[in-house]
Specification:
Layout: E1 14-18, H1 22-33, E2 37-41, H2 47-55, E3 60-63, E4 77-80, H3 85-97, E5 102-104, E6 117-121, E7 124-128, H4 135-148, H5 153-170, H6 174-186, H7 188-194, H8 198-214, E8 220-225, H9 236-244, E9 247-250, H10 256-259, E10 267-270, E11 273-274, E12 277-278, H11 282-294, E13 298-303, H12 313-322, E14 327-330, H13 335-343, E15 355-360, H14 372-375, E16 380-385, H15 391-400, E17 408-413, E18 421-426, H16 430-435, E19 443-447, H17 454-457, E20 469-471
Helix pairs in contact: 1-2, 5-6, 5-8, 6-7, 7-8, 11-12
This protein binds S-adenosyl-L-homocysteine.
């Protein structure tokens, strides 16, 4: 760290600003906001500084003259913002001699402290600095933080401050207290504060505290869709809940990169499923989730893609519902959307496909039970999940029911990840082409004329070269 960030209490502290131009005015404004008692020293005073003085005459004293080293003693902090290099140097040297922290605007080498970019949601304050290396980057970062730190965060912090000691007294166990606070600070009560209903937030907090005293803490379950693979496709909510969960229950489709984003000290339980090799039967998973929540844990049940698309999320939720356990569902980007986007294959297109159907190609008793007549109709896209093993049979059935053998089809391996690979062909050729490749799961199949668009729209490149594609037209 080139600089050490600290927050200094400037309430009623005497601070000196040398210079009174527009740049000085900005620093004066900041120091006034922090409650400082200011002296501004300069032969000429700009209109913006005079304006600040008119608004807070008791806090800001102006002296129209040039700086001398005798002005320094008794000041907690000094800022030099003059246009004269010699004056700035003189201020810096004199302040350093007296060990008074000094900032010289735009001269990092003369500063003993620098101003960060400030996001002020008092009492919440965030400060960002690139140590003077990249002011534009600092500004961009600040803009980002402004957008994620809700304008009423300060009100939320004030509410928390008001209840802090009472909650500490009433919920003695530190772990339970943390859970309670996390629920308050990001649940319904926080939402009330954010929408300006401070009073009702306070009532709800009061009530939550009373209930807490009479009921043993019960955990909850977050059924989270983690998207198709690329961690960048997680939703904000998925990330937030993964970072607060005590236990992460995950399966094979959730990548290590995504699990890395979960809370460091969270317990991780693998309940993965592979074809023919269910490592934990679904009923056991349902019961496991209920049991963990009843033990007071916040459980993140993290699934690939979207939990309600071929994800058996519904069954898990039914069990929780029956047992009266709180849960929420976080949608994720399903493999069809993710793979199609990263493969440059729009699932619908004005000219080629007016509808799109997601089906499972999972074999039951050796055959696939789908409405082939309907799927073979023209002007649509079919996306097949879990279809690798059944690919040959799927293509045959479609052709037998009237689909043209030269209808384009693609198989996408490990879509959206750095290992994405795409094999394209037609209903007639794809099974043979795939047969000759070494394919790694998971794979998704897209059938329809939209696949042709990939020739023009492919954009995602896993290794900086042309996207890896094996194509053999009919
Ligand atoms: N709930 C998940 C689907 C679970 S079923 C979702 O919404 O995406 C598992 C199947 O999803 C896999 O067999 C495969 O067909 C598909 N799949 C999931 N992730 C994939 C990926 N990154 N690339 C290709 N197919 C994927």
């Amino acid at each position: 760290m080139d600089y050490f960030p600290i927050f200094v209490n400037l309430q009623d502290q005497h601070c000196l600003v040398v210079g009174a131009g527009d740049i000085a005015a900005r620093k004066i404004d900041l120091l006034l906001r922090a409650g400082a008692q200011l002296t501004v020293l300069a032969p000429e005073i700009s209109a913006s500084v005079l304006d600040l003085q008119q608004r807070q005459p008791e806090k800001l004293q102006i002296q129209r003259r040039i700086f001398s080293a005798q002005d320094l003693p008794g000041h907690t902090l000094v800022v030099s913002a003059t246009a004269h290099d010699a004056v700035n140097r003189q201020v810096a040297a004199a302040a350093r001699a007296l060990n008074i922290p000094v900032n010289v605007v735009d001269s990092r080498e003369l500063c003993s402290f620098i101003f960060p970019a400030i996001i002020d949601r008092s009492p919440v304050i965030a400060a960002v600095s690139t140590g003077g290396a990249a002011p534009v980057l600092t500004r961009l970062l600040r803009a980002k933080l402004e957008s994620v730190i809700h304008p009423r965060y300060g009100n939320l912090a004030s509410l928390a401050g008001k209840f802090r000691s009472r909650i500490k007294q009433q919920i003695r166990h530190p772990g339970q207290r943390r859970i309670f606070w996390e629920q308050i600070l990001q649940g319904r009560i926080a939402e009330q504060v954010f929408s300006g209903n401070q009073e009702s937030a306070e009532q709800m907090l009061e009530q939550a505290l009373q209930e807490k005293n009479t009921r043993p803490a019960q955990g909850e379950v977050y059924l989270i869709g983690a998207g198709p693979g690329d961690p960048d496709l997680l939703t904000f909510r998925a990330l937030r809940l993964m970072q607060q969960a005590d236990v992460i229950v995950h399966d094979r489709l959730v990548s290590a990169e995504i699990l890395d984003l979960a809370r460091r000290d969270a317990e991780r339980i693998y309940v993965g499923k592979q074809r023919q090799n269910h490592s934990l039967p679904q009923e056991s998973i349902n019961m496991l989730l209920a049991r963990l929540a009843k033990a007071g844990k916040r459980v993140a049940r993290v699934k690939g893609g979207d939990p309600f698309i071929f994800g058996r999320g519904g069954e898990e939720m039914e069990t929780l519902m029956e047992q009266g356990i709180h849960f929420q569902v976080v949608p994720g980007i399903t493999a069809a959307s993710g793979c199609a986007a990263y493969a440059g294959i729009p699932l619908t297109h004005r000219d080629y496909a007016q509808s799109c159907t997601f089906v499972t190609g999972h074999l039951k008793d050796g055959s696939i039970n789908l409405d082939w007549k309907q799927l073979a109709a023209p002007n649509q896209t079919i996306v097949i999940y879990m279809g690798l093993i059944g690919l040959g049979s799927i293509c045959q059935s479609l052709i037998a029911n009237g689909s043209p053998a030269d209808l384009p089809a693609a198989l996408i391996q490990q879509g959206t990840t750095s290992k994405q690979r795409i094999v394209t062909g037609t209903l007639g050729t794809l099974p043979d082409i795939v047969e000759k490749q070494k394919i790694n799961p998971p794979t998704l199949i897209i059938i329809g004329r939209v696949v042709e668009l990939r020739q023009r729209l492919a954009w995602f490149d896993t290794d900086g070269n042309t996207p890896e594609t094996i194509t053999q037209p009919a």
